[in-house]
């Protein structure tokens, strides 16, 4: 039995997302969540998933969503981030089925100050739900990890009630992911906050599971966004196993892994760390920094190699009157970035055991 015996190709609902995550947790693999910022990057990620026969998660950050709509738009009220997220969702919905893979369509970190963005996306989900009976997105992330635990849980519960009615998955974060991403700088936070405690995880599970089953927790276990030289923070994916055990005991021990866990700041981690995280119930791992670099690589190498064909519209090393259109056409050079991005996404799938799963 594969994923396509459980769900259909295309963008999934929250309930369908849970079925896929249950399957992944049971079979000990995780699905990479790749940040996309354009139709080009989205298509390349879908192409990779199709080639390795796997489900995939596409996500937009608040900044990435604004970029999708266009950097030239005003975003002072999050209007470009809302418009861009909706545009990305419609694009991905339209093409995903053609690639034949199940897609979890997700929005990345939303901190307290960005809640207007979240509200705007939920309005769009609601409107789409009214018309089609399914939400626009599969899943959204709320990240109130910078606030107190009480406020974090309360805010998540409030939003989760609205999201559950719309069949949308919630990802929440507790504890802090170090490093810097999308304008949030956590490079200087206290080390203890970088490791979440099992009691806190259970408190969240207890509160949210009373509202619905469709949620996951991004627990901090020393994760850092971005790729840095090894520093004073160490990744401890074995802590995730303790969260599972603690929750399992509280729940009577029937299910040894009751939690759906998410791995943030996965770029640059070792294969061994990834394996431990997945064996402890991580079903989603975010990959952004490494795929950004991969997208550049193809374009950079093409420009370097073909520089003599890119300086003028006519005239290259083969002759002064030779046209260069077949080198400067964006379908040529942007495509080179798509190819290297696709290779990197396939590698992420393979690292997480997410291949030949359809
Ligand atoms: Zn993250």
UniProtKB/TrEMBL annotation:
Its cofactor is Zn(2+). Its EC number is 4.1.2.13. Coiled coil: none annotated. One of its GO terms (biological process) is gluconeogenesis. Pathway: Carbohydrate degradation; glycolysis; D-glyceraldehyde 3-phosphate and glycerone phosphate from D-glucose: step 4/4. Belongs to the class II fructose-bisphosphate aldolase family. Catalyzes the aldol condensation of dihydroxyacetone phosphate (DHAP or glycerone-phosphate) with glyceraldehyde 3-phosphate (G3P) to form fructose 1,6-bisphosphate (FBP) in gluconeogenesis and the reverse reaction in glycolysis. This is Fructose-bisphosphate aldolase. It comes from Exidia glandulosa HHB12029.
């Amino acid at each position: 039995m594969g994923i396509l015996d459980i769900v259909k190709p295309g963008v999934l609902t929250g309930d369908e997302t849970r079925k896929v995550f249950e399957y992944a947790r049971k079979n000990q693999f995780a699905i990479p969540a790749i940040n996309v910022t354009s139709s080009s990057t989205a298509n390349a990620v879908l192409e990779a998933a199709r080639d390795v026969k796997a489900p995939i998660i596409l996500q937009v950050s608040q900044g990435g969503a604004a970029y999708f709509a266009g950097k030239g738009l005003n975003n002072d009220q999050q209007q470009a981030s809302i418009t861009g997220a909706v545009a990305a969702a419609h694009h991905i919905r339209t093409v995903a089925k053609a690639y034949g893979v199940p897609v979890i369509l997700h929005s990345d970190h939303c901190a307290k100050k960005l809640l207007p963005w979240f509200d705007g996306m939920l309005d769009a989900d609601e409107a789409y739900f009214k018309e089609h009976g399914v939400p626009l997105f599969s899943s959204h992330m709320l990240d109130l990890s910078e606030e107190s635990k009480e406020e974090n849980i309360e805010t998540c519960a409030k939003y989760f009630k609205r999201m559950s009615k719309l069949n949308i998955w919630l990802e929440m974060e507790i504890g802090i992911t170090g490093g810097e991403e999308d304008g949030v700088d956590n490079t200087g936070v206290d080390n203890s906050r970088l490791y979440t405690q099992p009691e806190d995880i259970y408190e969240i599970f207890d509160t949210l599971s009373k509202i619905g089953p469709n949620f996951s927790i991004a627990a901090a276990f020393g994760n850092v966004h971005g790729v840095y030289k090894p520093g004073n923070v160490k990744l401890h994916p074995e802590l995730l196993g303790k969260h599972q055990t603690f929750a399992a005991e509280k729940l009577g021990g029937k299910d040894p892994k009751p939690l759906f866990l998410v791995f943030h700041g996965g770029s640059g981690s070792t294969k061994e760390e990834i394996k431990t995280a997945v064996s402890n119930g991580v079903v989603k791992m975010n990959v952004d920094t490494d795929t950004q670099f991969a997208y550049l690589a193809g374009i950079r190498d093409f420009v370097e190699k073909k520089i003599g064909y890119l300086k003028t519209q006519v005239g290259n090393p083969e002759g002064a009157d030779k046209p260069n259109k077949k080198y400067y056409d964006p379908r040529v050079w942007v495509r080179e970035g798509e190819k290297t991005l696709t290779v990197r996404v396939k590698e992420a799938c393979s690292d997480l055991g997410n291949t030949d799963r359809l």
